[in-house]
Design goal:
119 residues, mainly alpha, binds zinc ion
């Protein structure tokens, strides 16, 4: 790495610059911070992992809980997190469509007797 203060080439593992003696943001330190707060876990999800994921989605109750766990757990890899969020969005959309569908049917059923009497 390069010292941000003096621009000297420094060993990646050193915490202090050999040239200007200023403290360096050590790579190990940054890795430690990322492990504590993995906002973006970009680890690859294996085929077996996806198989388990889809099996879990066929189990009642578990398939209602797991999308929330995937979407909001900080340890979940980013792709699976997005997958969980996509499921939650699809739920929200289908829920709205279901309400609109039944809402229009109920509205139609209510409007039929009124329409019949007016003619
Ligand atoms: Zn330096």
């Amino acid at each position: 790495m390069i010292c941000p203060k003096c621009g000297a080439l420094v060993n990646d593992n050193s915490t202090v610059c050999w040239n200007c003696n200023s403290r360096l943001a050590n790579n190990k330190y940054y890795n430690g911070v990322q492990e504590q707060n993995p906002v973006e876990n970009r680890s690859i999800i294996t085929v077996g992992d996806w198989v388990v994921t889809f099996i879990l989605l066929t189990v009642p109750i578990v398939n209602l809980v797991m999308p929330f766990v995937w979407a909001f757990s900080s340890s979940t890899p980013l792709s699976k997190k997005n997958f969980g969020k996509a499921i939650l969005i699809l739920w929200a959309v289908s829920f709205v469509l279901l309400i609109l569908f039944w809402g229009s049917i109920i509205a139609m059923l209510h409007s039929i007797p009124q329409g019949g009497t007016s003619i």
